[in-house]
Design brief:
Blueprint: H1 9-23, H2 30-43, H3 49-69, H4 74-88, H5 92-107, H6 114-126
Length: 131
């Protein structure tokens, strides 16, 4: 199994966004997946389409594997990704963009539930927007 540092930042974002979308209401809609793909594409606009697709699918498989085969590692992986993004992305605007995109994912179904609010607050802290 690959380690966190073996995945690119956009793959880590893919994992984080999918985990957020699913774990906050235990539903992952087509609209959420389409939005996640669009947002991740924005982080790597010059990446070849086939390479982007391969990376995106690999990140989805990574999330699915942990969710189904090693669920005890899910939250530690999410927290490690958020902390890593906070360290690697020195520009506060990039970290704010992550938070804004997570917020947008949470509103795609027309409402923000309490669990989404809790996750947003925790991830905001973990990516270094709150000191």
């Amino acid at each position: 199994m690959k380690q966190l540092e073996d995945y690119s930042l956009h793959q880590q974002l893919t994992f984080l966004y999918i985990a957020f979308a699913y774990q906050t209401d235990f539903n992952l809609s087509e609209a959420e997946m389409a939005l996640i793909e669009k947002k991740i594409r924005g982080w790597c606009p010059h990446k070849d389409d086939s390479k982007f697709r391969n990376d995106f699918e690999e990140a989805k498989d990574w999330y699915s594997f942990i969710l189904h085969q090693d669920p005890a590692e899910l939250m530690p992986t999410i927290m490690s990704i958020a902390n890593n993004l906070g360290k690697k992305l020195k520009d506060p605007k990039s970290r704010q963009q992550i938070y804004s995109e997570l917020y947008e994912i949470s509103t795609i179904d027309g409402e923000i539930n309490e669990r989404e609010e809790q996750w947003l607050a925790g991830l905001k802290r973990d990516i270094g927007l709150i000191i």
